[in-house]
Input
Amino acid sequence: MKNMRINGQRLWDSLMEMAKIGATEKGGNCRLALTDLDKQGRDLFVSWCEEAGCSIRVDKMGNIFARRPGRDNSLPPVMTGSHLDTQPTGGKFDGVFGVLAGLEVIRTLNDFDYETEAPVEAAVWTNEEGSRFAPAMVASGVFAGVFDLEYGHSRADLDGKTMGEELERIGYLGDEPCGGREIRAFFEAHIEQGPILEAEEKTIGVLTGAQGQRWFEITLTGAESHAGTTPMDRRRDALLGAAKIVTAVNEIALAHAPNAVTTVGLLQVSPNSRNTIPGEVFFAVDLRHPTDEQLSAMADELRAICDRVCEADGLESEVTEIWYSPPIVFNADCVAAVRKAAEGAGFAHRDIISGAGHDACYISRVAPTGMIFVPCKDGISHNEIESATPDDLAAGCDVLLQAMVERASA
Ligand code: HGY
Ligand code: MN
Ligand code: MN
Output
């Protein structure tokens, strides 16, 4: 086991092959969840896993599980995986690295004809990004029992298409129950999507946990009226109100520095006409913090700011918290297995908490779970220029292999 090493070139080639699906002009990927491009990526992954001798199962949320048998297949599997869906201006590595690192682990076990005690599975979780369908991580959330199946299937995109309909349309509405089965251990390999590992010249991030998130949807209602004839003191301008709240959302993060982050990334104006005062604005707010109490204080401040602005500007508001994902701590044995694998391979490493959410956050509720980070260039992600080096990706995959084999042994 010690001298088993993954094939870094093969991993890189499969990443570049997958990156051809939904390739964007600036070198990134756009494969929104459950689009035809997501289907193409899923089909490619399934074909590669079948070539590697895996059996394939798809559950009712479209999660894919490629299984390599072990000596004792009555044992729960050691699983790895991540997501193939991307942001609209996504990169080639966010999620995809974790999925194809799982495939590379299976290919490597085949190369060395190594039989694990427990079976091994490589998974693809549906709609991790929460970009087309909110919230994020909804399919691993159903698997973990956080959401029920009906909730998962009813998530709709901005055009009203639901996940259930789209799963059916692309042929990934599986018949396997989603969740309710034991997993011996789960590991997810992922790019850090932040600047720390690169800045500290560390090859491996040993994740100890992930920060919490609260997502809100806010609708402000004022009154459409003529841009030229309506005096300033008679306006009920929904976009002006939203602008004040967007600025205040940024101030919430500054007030809870250094660990808070807040974002407004989605905003729709109606009627969106250059010479009509906006009557309605819909926008989304993303609040994050490593500790729960600070995160709930930030949420309270957001609600209070909305009330104050609407009171002052004569607007109505509808403020809905659509998602709460608490801060999590990963399983000590899995964290130790990742750290031991990094040390065994001589990779510079450090403990780290994830700023991003991952499917592993929800799976940690139903299985002993750990994560492995590798650096990405300038810490940039959710951007087409997202980049990572073949050597770092191979190192992360080697650590994944060793951690999984350790947990899949007798
Ligand atoms: O938003 C996140 O943290 C993840 O990329 N879905
Ligand atoms: Mn991701
Ligand atoms: Mn992402």
